[in-house]
Write a structure and sequence with these properties.
This protein is of the alpha/beta class. The chain has one domain: Rossmann fold (3-Layer(aba) Sandwich), CATH 3.40.50.
Length: 208
């Protein structure tokens, strides 16, 4: 195994405890709904897919995603900077489904994520395709290559701070032609406002 990605062993995470998920969903969902947020009622039916969360410009996006993730009924995984996975915080992040990634490395984390999908029949991998909260000229293509290699769909998720709505777009099964598939995925974000619009890189005309 390469050093850039530390895959969690097949251990129980928070997603293994439905009662805890219901508590988390009720707590965070209640707080955001009091603030005026609306969340999609129906989750994707697929048991395995790559979920892309775009217009990622704020740490608040994580807490909005907690509400959606807790409603999926799936084993949710997400990737984070390896420097966060240290000590008690690292243990907590792994329990939440985190996978530590060395962003500066160019090793084959795509292949390792594909292997992770192959090793389970229930997994949702959440990825922010911009790779950062800062403005970038285009999306990174890793999410697409993971989905293509694993033979799973890409499910876009929007976090619209303008209308205070969060939900799912149509699943897209990768054809192998990224430039052809990307507009289908990004159309989910038409008219969606990020928390910090100046850092938004998810416009449909910006391609990986």
């Amino acid at each position: 195994m390469n050093a850039d990605v530390c895959l969690p062993p097949q251990r129980k995470t928070v997603c293994s405890y439905p009662r805890v998920l219901r508590l988390i969903h009720g707590l965070f969902g209640g707080i955001f709904r009091l603030a005026g947020w609306q969340f999609a009622e129906s989750a994707p039916l697929e048991r395995k897919y790559v979920m892309v969360v775009a217009r990622h410009t704020s740490n608040w996006d994580f807490f909005v995603m907690v509400v959606l993730a807790a409603s999926l009924g799936r084993q949710v995984r997400f990737m984070g900077k390896h420097s966060l996975f240290i000590g008690p915080l690292g243990s907590l992040l792994r329990w939440l489904g985190g996978i530590a990634v060395e962003r500066s490395s160019q090793h084959n984390f795509v292949e390792q994520m594909v292997a992770q999908f192959a090793d389970t029949d229930d997994m949702v991998l959440i990825i922010a395709p911009e790779g950062t909260r800062k403005a970038v000229p285009c999306w990174k293509g890793g999410f697409y290559h993971i989905a293509l290699g694993a033979g799973v769909a890409v499910v876009p998720v929007y976090l619209d701070y303008g209308r205070k709505r969060a939900g799912f777009g149509e699943p897209c099964m990768p054809s192998g032609d990224l430039q052809s598939d990307l507009p289908r995925i990004q159309q989910c974000y038409a008219g969606v406002q990020a928390r910090h619009p100046e850092g938004d890189s998810s416009h449909p005309d910006k391609q990986a």
